[in-house]
Amino acid sequence: MVKKIMVLVMLSSFLCGCGSFASRFEGGYHDEYYSGVKYSVHQADRGYGFYYLDVPFSFIFDTVMLPADIIRIESTH
Relative to the CA of 55, which of 10, 22, 24, 72 has its CA 20 to 30 Å away? Predict the structure, then answer.
């Protein structure tokens, strides 16, 4: 049962799009830390509630990308 729930959550995340990638390529949040989490929450607040499923995945990816984001953001300021 737990396996089925995990598969459903992962598939839902892939279907709704990863906020971390979208925030970096669509713009708007690319110059902020944890941009994927902010993007996913913003999209969920706009009425796309399934983006809340993406928040944990975006948090993990944004944490992994944090060193690169620090270099990129600090070099532009």
Answer: 72
- Cα 64 to Cα 14, 36, 67, 72: the distances in Å are 18, 12, 7, 14
Rg (CA), the chain: 13
| C-beta atoms surrounding 61 within 10 Å | 18
- Pick from 31, 49, 32: which is nearest to 40 by CA? 49
Looking at residue 54, the DSSP 8-state letter turns out to be: G
The secondary structure of residue 28, as a DSSP letter, is: S
User: Which mean pLDDT values do the consecutive 10-residue runs of the chain (77 residues) have?
Assistant: 79 67 77 90 88 87 91 86
Structure tokens at 42: 């913003």
